[in-house]
Each structure stands twice: as C-alpha cells, then as structure tokens.
Amino acid sequence: MRTRPDSRADxxxxxxxxxxxxxxxxxxxxxxxxxxxILVCGTAVRVWQVxxxxxxxxxxxxxxxxxxxxxxxxxxVFEARLYQAASLYEQGVSDLVVTVGGKQxxxxxxxxxxxxxxxxxxxxxxxxxxxxxTGSDTLRSIEAVADAMHxxxxxxxxxxxxxxxxxxxxxxxxxAGLDAWTAPTRTGPAVYTRESQAHGIxxxxxxxxxxxxxxxSADFNYTAGQ
Length: 226
Known about the structure:
Strand order of the largest sheet: 5-4-1-6-7
Strand content: 5-15%
Number of domains: 1
CATH superfamily: HUPs
Largest sheet: 5 strands, parallel
Shape: elongated
CATH topology: Rossmann fold
Helix content: 40-55%
Distance between the termini: 77 Å
Structural class: alpha/beta
CATH class: Alpha Beta
C-alpha cells in the first residue's frame, strides 16, 4: 500500500519539530550550566576577597565564632580565633568580647564558656566578656549573638573566625540586623597549607550558596566539628 504524499510530509514535519525541541532543550541545559558555573565561580571569588579583609574599625563588640573544645580546652581552630579576638581587644577595637557556642552531648563546657576562660587567661577582664552559651552552627550562633546584643542596645560587631568563613558570617550577621564586618584570624589549621585554603574556599562557597538559597544552616559539620 502506497503512503500518501501528505502523510510523508506530516512525518517529516514531526521529525523537524522533534529535532528543534531537542536543539532548544540542549541550549537551555547548556545555558543553565554556564549560569551555574558563573554563579559558583563568582561566589568563590567573593569568599576569597572577603577572606583578605581585615577591618579594625571600632565596634560595640568583638564576636568570636565558636569551634570545638575539649573539656574546656579550645581546639587549635578555636584557639586561633580567640587569640585574634584578644589581640583586637588589646588594640582597643571594642570594650566587649562576645564568645558564642553551645556544647555537644557529653561535653562539660560550652564553646562560649571555654572561650571565655581562654580569654580571661589571656588577660581580658571577666566583665569585658559576654558568653552566649547557645548555638550549634554558624546560623544559630549568629542569631543568638544578635539577640543578646540587641537586648543590650548594641548594634555593631567585628566578627572573628577563619578567613574563608568571613563572608558567610558577615552575611548572616547583617541579615540578623547587625552592622557587621570582619577581622579573621591569620593563624591556625585553616590557613596552614594551600590545600586547606582551597578546601575552605570550596566548602564555604557551597555553604554560602545553600544559605542564600534556603536561609537554613549550611555548616556541613564545619565549625562545630573543628
């Protein structure tokens, strides 16, 4: 049985439409991948740029982001942050240092209490330290600090953490209503090697993108586990 000419034409048109859809679909997927790569690379550059900023402008408080501690002894990551905070206090950046962070199950001390003890041993007066003993990740810690500071009518904070952590902490603090800038530590495991630096930038790029997309915590066992 012969195929009618109009049937062959309809079949060819259908194939043409299908091919066109595939071409446009491929272009859309390719375009989305390019946009995604630009977004990721642009965020990584911003993480690197803000990591290099050291702003010693006087503030209402120096805020130290918590990290792991062991029976009251700060981990090397936490100690590097606390050392920087004590230095900022000695330089007159603020009259108040805020430590923040809760504790894991079985811990005897909170991160905030451990940090306070370290600072007192470093010469910071007890009445110049506010320990905010809540927060299991960066977001909850920043929100707890913001609540504590607003309750004392304090508005500005210089944030102390690892360099690569600076942009995310600053973003969260500003979202929480604080006038915040950063003066990160330049010592500790986070900055020892090129490998640790690259790992920190990659991790913080992913965490910041997740936070900006969802406004949920995005620590991936980062600060709480170090």
